[in-house]
Amino acid sequence: MDKQSKSYKEMASKVAREHRKLKWFQLRHLLKRKAALISLLILVTTLLVAVFAPLIAPYPDQGRGTVNIEQRLQAPSFSHLFGTDSYGRDILSRVIYGARISVFGGIIIVFFAAVIGVPLGLWAGYNEGISGALIIRVVELVLSFPSTLIAMAISIIIGAGWLTAIIALTIPWWPWYTRLVQGEVLSIKQTLYVEAAQMLGYGKIYIIFRHLLPNILTPVIAMILLDLGPAIIAIGLLSFLGLGTQPPNADWGLMVWQGAQNILTEWWIAIAPGCAMFMVVIAFNLFGDALKEILDSNP
Amino acid sequence: MTASLIKLEEVNTWFPYSKPIVGKPESWVKAVNDVSLNIIEGECIGLVGESGCGKSTLGRTILRLAPLYSGNIHFLGDNIGKLSAKRLKPYRAKMQMVFQDPKASLNPKMTVFKILKEALVLNKRVAKEDYLEQAVKLLNLVDLRPEHIYRYPHEFSGGQQQRISIARALATDPKFIVFDEATSALDVSVQAQVINLMKALQDKLMLTYLFISHDLSIMEHVCSRVAVMYAGQVVEVQNSRSLFDAPRHPYTRALKNAVPIADPESKNDLGILKGDVPKLSNPPSGCHFHPRCDFRDKICSKVSPEVSKINGNSWVRCHLHEKLWKHGALISE
Amino acid sequence: MNNLALSKENEQTFSGDPVMQVKDLNVAFNNHGGQAKILEGVNFCLYPREILALVGETGSGKSVTAKSILNLIPSHSRETTGEVLFDDRNLISLSAKDLQFIRGKRISMVFQNPQSSINPVFTLGEQIGRLIRLYLPHEISAVMHKNQCSPKRAIETIAKDKLNEVGLTDIQRMLKLYAGQISGGMAQRYRIALSLLSLPEILIADEATSALDVTVQAHILKLMKDLCKNKETAILFITHDLGIAAQICARVAVMYAGRIVEISDTKSLFKNPCHPYTKGLLKAVPKLGKNEPLSFVSGMIPDLVNPPRGCRFHPRCGHAMDICREKKPKDLMVEENHRVSCFLYNKQ
How far is the C-alpha of C216 from the C-alpha of B324, rounded, in Å? Predict the structure, then answer.
């Protein structure tokens, strides 16, 4: 019997060793995908730019908002690569500083929307009792109102500001995740592997996080990544209405809205932040696609 | 007579037809209706019936995966029918199930090792450090190579997936395994492989099996005793040999005749059973089978037949079984 | 129980012209894994008024064969060569327009899941009515003339007739129902009635009874046997169940990995199986009333993107010789009406 168990031990350690080698190969293979690599590069760059803004921006104080009236509305030149806005501030620096506000802001909104919405969706999908029904009713209630209206109302009540915008936008945003997740859970709730886990005696919480969540992750991640663009734009809209980012802080959406008014004459004011937004949104989408492919490689 | 591992007494598994928000449901779907059955330790008992007869529900009821409406389930002498989830946990390790669809019964996002580990956790005799070793041992038991342990379910064929399911069922060191149509989705040769494996494991590990299937032909190869189910009730239980040679219930005879035999020399009179399978929400009165029965009598539509013992572990539920036996009406050729 | 009569029917000798001939059919699918060569040189004939069983396990290519006959597989990913001769024309080379006159009319098909092959949005009456108008306009006018009734009435009468033939009762009520409201057995009978409306020469049944309960299946099998005789339709019955083949089919073709390895009349196949795969398959099938242990052919079906060279069965064959690994076996008649594709019987 000892010899038998020894041979099993040997087999087991051999298999574990091979597996570790294989995982390393898989990681390297993952990074070979061009789209994922490029988009990851863009996103990491954006993050670094946002974090190290004071060190990268050519005119950091203008980025933060200091006015420089003498040089207002200058077209792009060597000293100001993207020109200046109506207050004379260097647009490149504003865009760099805007990354902090817009991109971080968008990430925070979507993050919290998912963090609130996904667990509620998991619970509502798996339980058919009163708690589940209640969650769905709340979701339907919130979704029946136009989200911009809700966000505006909340901003007005709390008082305008960047943080307010974040809160005001997260509130109408989380129900989308709950609804998505609840639908996904309903479709896999009855599968046999869930029943097998029940047969083994595992409780609700374990089944929800160990069996349901990994299998609904793909559409949720897709939604997260596709939401980041609209989130950035939504902050911009609220700022434009005066309810979000307050001047003199730089906000991409705000800059685009303001610059759009002068698009024919001073075209550089809207183009720079617009391109930045465009690049980041595309990067998120590409990365989302690549991530979906990787996650779905085990059908 | 050896001890019963499992004793079912007047088990009813009823599902409400519609769930009202307040109050009790008005009508029920009687998936399992007044079933009493003994499963003897070490035997392989078959449960055969067509779709909608409640056989899968009965298997799940024993494992407490379906809501028991009334009745008792005795397992190893203890009444587990009404136990709470917490008190039931220690029993769960002792009874396991292998499901019908091999692909759907394995979580596609978990490796084979994770799947087995999830079950091994319940096995008190295995220490944490030994999980990998035990998993390799289990794969060996079901004739799978240890290199497969870090693969995902979709990388295996149906037969292999089913063997992984069997390995998982064995991981908790069970005494009783229910095979719910476990070979129905497999090709004929793969089915033969899995059945041979099942039999070998039963001898080696001294297990008790409940083998649920709609396929009567396979019963004799696998089971020593067979129970026939119709419309939520067990209508006949006999040794497999006697069941096939001399069925005691008209439904069994009809079922037997309907199976196309893989032998051109023996021709069955196919299709002697008329009518459709009854709805479990509104089954026919009295004996549920009476509208389709060639031998029915007046009493059959009024009174539900009682269990009549034949011998040993065999019994039948039919008002007219003695008369039919005397005249040999159910024996063909 | 007329055992003798039934067995005599199965012993028809097949002289005369086949109604359909499949010659050297090769089908390959292109997908990102590579090119899967699903069918490799499929050859068989279907004679009038017979039921031919096409038996095989998963991956044998039997369903693909059936669908290729009627060109039901989307063409952008597949390549087909060979001939399917029907009425002196090669169905493979026909355009979609020409094929439309054959599909459903002269060759019809019944599928595995009856309820999903009936349109759920229309009532059963509407669907059969539409087909009657399409295929039986003469009969409509004849009935109208005889009974002096409206076209609608005439169609209803014809529908009742046809549905009665397949053993359905209470038809008046049934015509008003939808697909989801009838049982599987009823739905399959309805589908069979629809496919026989145009009196096709060939009916292809693709696992037509696999989704049905065994007692219901028994009725459908009996029905198909009767219809084959009465309507003079040839039936190509695709199944994995050798029992069905044994009970209702006059001839059986066994497929493995895209090729017909053995084809013969039913009695010879079961009594005297020649191909090693057929032998293995017969030993693995559980037979009601016999308690022999089941044995099986070890191994798995080959990867069709990189199939084994030579005979596709050789990796699993206990009798594999050197030539099996190199060359593909040719078809050889071992008895009258019994053809095998194996080097054991082919001295070359």
Answer: 25
